[in-house]
Design a protein that fits this description.
This protein is of the alpha+beta class. The protein contains eleven helices and 17 strands. The strands form six sheets. The protein has a seven-stranded antiparallel β-sheet, with helices on both faces. Helix 2 packs across helix 7.
């Protein structure tokens, strides 16, 4: 039986987040190994257009929270002996051999060179292949403008032509690694990523509202992505994502609900098993929650290259990366303990799994930019603090 808490302090944090204009709407949920012990929400699905309240059964675009699910699919294939993390990516996706490293500029022309070492599947899983995202890379912003190669959000396959911005194995660079990992998973499975996720993770865990393409019945339950208008009020920017993309994006393509995703979090919390269904072995989960960067470091700050899309990410010292998870090496006073695994999504969704305390939680909105310091980023922290205070 899940623990019980007084959630009124958390409710107040969520409502204040909406009332202050920090977020257009918000839903949050928390659980332990035995079940959900908190869920709440505030605001409406579409500001100024809808009276539908947002809650833990509302559909959100979870963006990069997709990555851990796809990473888990790759880890399953590794467990079955089907996928070698130390094999070159091109062994599974021959077209990856065409991906070069951006090594500077000759006037307005990008200079592309061969990687010093072939990128491996492990490089993709740990974001050490050198592949980046435009919103945290001035060079990729410039490259897209110079070449017309799109970023991944419009769903065009040409986005995978983007170059590496560092040589494989030499630097942590957060980027489209998991999009390529999804292609590797498809190659191994002999089917598309949506099928893999449904058959091996979402289906077994009972996550029936987690999918790459919403059916008609669920489209009326999805929030819109919000931005602030000139008057500072939140307005809908629509769905933004391409509903018929060229490929299922392993880096950002899933929709889910807080109630669904918490089942995945609980499976990680319980060492890979939930309600008698095992999706990963305990040793594999332990590896996911362990430093996989070796001597490389997770950057203390990643400056924005596109302020309309994201603020600068500043985590400070003492963080590393496992398999699909950001890990803190020290306790955060009044909040998560050392060794917690976490990550977030570009439209301001966030989850964490604290195996020491024995809880997992997530908080959701769909808005841009990502993590504005005094708004969504502060709300993340306020929610987490209120949750731990209630334990």
């Amino acid at each position: 039986m899940a623990r019980t808490i007084d959630g009124s302090g958390i409710d107040a944090v969520l409502q204040q987040g909406v009332d202050s204009g920090a977020v257009p709407h918000v839903a949050a949920i928390a659980a332990d190994a035995d079940g959900i012990f908190y869920e709440g929400g505030a605001g409406v699905r579409i500001a100024g257009e809808s009276d539908d309240p947002v809650g833990t059964s509302t559909q959100f675009r979870i963006m990069s929270m997709t990555k851990m699910i796809v990473t888990a699919a790759a880890l399953q294939q590794q467990e079955r002996g089907q996928l070698d993390f130390d094999a070159p990516v091109a062994e599974y996706c021959p077209e990856f051999a065409d991906v070069k490293v951006l090594d500077g500029w000759n006037g307005d022309e990008p200079v592309l060179v061969e990687p010093r070492t072939p990128a491996t599947v492990r490089h993709l899983v740990t974001h050490t292949s050198g592949l980046g995202y435009w919103f945290w890379s001035d060079d990729l912003v410039r490259y897209e403008a110079a070449t017309g190669v799109p970023n991944v959000v419009p769903g065009k396959i040409e986005a995978l032509q983007a170059p590496m911005t560092a040589h494989p194995g030499e630097k942590f660079v957060y980027g489209i690694n998991t999009d390529w990992l999804g292609r590797v998973v498809e190659s191994v499975a002999g089917t598309t990523l949506d099928v893999v996720v449904k058959e091996h993770i979402a289906g077994p865990l009972g996550m029936h509202d987690t999918m790459f393409a919403l059916d008609d019945g669920r489209k009326d339950n999805v929030v819109m992505v919000h931005v602030k208008g000139e008057d500072g009020a939140w307005v809908s920017a629509g769905g933004i994502l391409n509903e018929s993309p060229d490929w299922w994006a392993g880096g950002h393509g899933l929709y889910s609900t807080p109630r669904d995703y918490i089942r995945f979090e609980r499976a990680l919390l319980r060492g890979g098993e939930l309600d008698g269904t095992r999706i990963l072995e305990q040793a594999t989960v332990d590896a996911a929650f362990s430093n996989q960067l070796g001597d490389l470091t997770f950057p203390e700050a990643i400056p924005t290259a596109d302020p309309a899309i994201t603020d600068t990410l500043t985590v400070g010292p003492g963080w590393t990366w496992g398999y699909g998870l950001l890990l803190n090496n020290e306790d955060i006073p009044g909040r998560r303990r050392a060794g917690t695994g976490a990550w977030a999504g570009l439209f301001n969704t966030h989850f964490f799994v604290d195996r020491t305390t024995g809880i997992c939680a997530s908080i959701y909105t769909n808005s841009l930019p990502f993590i504005p310091e005094k708004e969504a980023w502060q709300l993340y922290g306020d929610f987490e603090g209120a949750l731990y205070a209630a334990l």
